[in-house]
Hints:
Layout: E1 8-10, H1 15-28, H2 36-43, E2 48-53, E3 56-70, E4 73-85, H3 94-108, E5 113-116, H4 122-125, E6 130-141, E7 154-156, H5 162-173, E8 180-181, H6 184-191, E9 200-207, E10 210-223, E11 228-238, H7 241-252, E12 258-265, E13 281-292, H8 295-301, E14 310-317, E15 326-333, E16 336-341, E17 347-350, H9 351-359, H10 364-369, E18 373-374, H11 377-386
Parallel strand pairs: 4-5, 11-12, 14-17
Antiparallel strand pairs: 1-2, 2-3, 3-4, 3-8, 5-13, 6-12, 6-13, 7-9, 9-10, 10-11, 14-15, 15-16, 17-18
Bound molecules: coenzyme A.
The site of coenzyme A has 19 residues, from strand 4, helix 3 and helix 4.
Amino acid sequence: MGKKLNVDIGLPADDSEVQAFTRIVSQALFFPAVDLDVWIKREGPENIRVARRKDGVVGGLIVQRMGQWFGGRSVPMGAVRAVGVAPEHRATGVASQLLTTALEEMRRDGVPLSALFPATQPVYRRPGYEQAGVRLTYRLPASAIDVRDRTLHLRPIEPADRDAVRRAYSERARRTSGNLDRNEWYWQRIFDPPPWGSQTYGYQIEHEGRAEAYTVFAQKAGDKLHNAHHVELVDLVTLTAEAGRRLLTFFADHRSMAKTVTWSGAPAEPMLYLLAEQASNIVHRLDWMLRIVDVRCALEARGYPPAANTDVHVEVVDDVLRHNHGRFVLEVSDSQGRVREGGGGNVRIDVRGLAALYTGHLSPADLKLAGYLDGPDEDLAKAALVFAGPAPWMPDIF
Ligand SMILES: CC(C)(COP(=O)(O)OP(=O)(O)OC[C@H]1O[C@@H](n2cnc3c(N)ncnc32)[C@H](O)[C@@H]1OP(=O)(O)O)[C@@H](O)C(=O)NCCC(=O)NCCS
């Protein structure tokens, strides 16, 4: 790093600081210079933190408060996005100070996790984030969909259906590791795309009084001569195999115009099990990073496998947020975790490794190979039992 210079960090003091932040971040992230007022209004100026030097704002970030599902419980999470520093002020520690200050604020507010999608990793690893789950994008040729099942009734999503759609989303999300407990800001992105987004279409399958599946998608124009257009799903939830077959049939019904269907799904995607052949490709992968902001709160807020009745003695190494540094005992019973200070510290783990252990992204054995963890095999086996669960993923990006 170049010379580290101190910055003053806080909420934008007035509208001119909001405008300065918007200018810096839109330049940093290569946003088109249109609709920026709409963009920042949707984000909520109260979620911005700016970094100032004597000449004014030099950078900033946004934290959207959401939750993330682990072990059947929604754990409060600060979603960090729109991190940007004016190019003439880079490599002087602005982003590092912004992130550390945002993490300290989350801790004060009782938010024990923070997640983000990195454009580059070192700047996020430094304050304690680590890869902890995947976002995978699948592409399937429409012609490879061999399912034809129109049994269930499918119809457009009306504004009055939005609560039912949100319930369907939550029913799926709480059974995963890592799906978002979306806030209003995220749902607005799904239901009311901003002016710079594509037009979207929403359909749901209603069965026995509930939304059993839904999708929201955009249609991307491709090669017009050959009718090679693309259906890109913004959101997709199915709660039963019957509903999955009906939705696949619906996508196949686009095949005279659409060449492919693209969506973000689980590491082993149940929709693909409904097809005869392995016809899809993963066209994009980006791992999200997680920071355990408060070890004790994070461990007590999530759920655990009902069959796990044991305790794990850990020693956490955290050089950035010192309240996390030290020995803890995690006692798990009845799907609940209780944490007390002290214990033998048998499993020694860096707080970044703890992020990947917490979500179930890496096993204790693999964390040992990554250099993040050490301890006797019998303690690693207990940790493996406690943090076992579905592979962590999320379809969303922020
Ligand atoms: C990435 C960015 C926010 C870093 O801000 P910064 O204030 O320069 O970062 P810091 O000075 O705190 O540096 C911390 C670490 O970030 C890394 N870093 C700094 N500038 C970087 C750059 N331009 N690109 C990639 N990594 C960078 C370095 O590893 C640095 O540590 P080091 O000096 O020990 O190598 C800034 O370069 C930026 O605004 N880039 C464009 C927008 C962007 O990519 N945002 C991230 C979106 S997820």
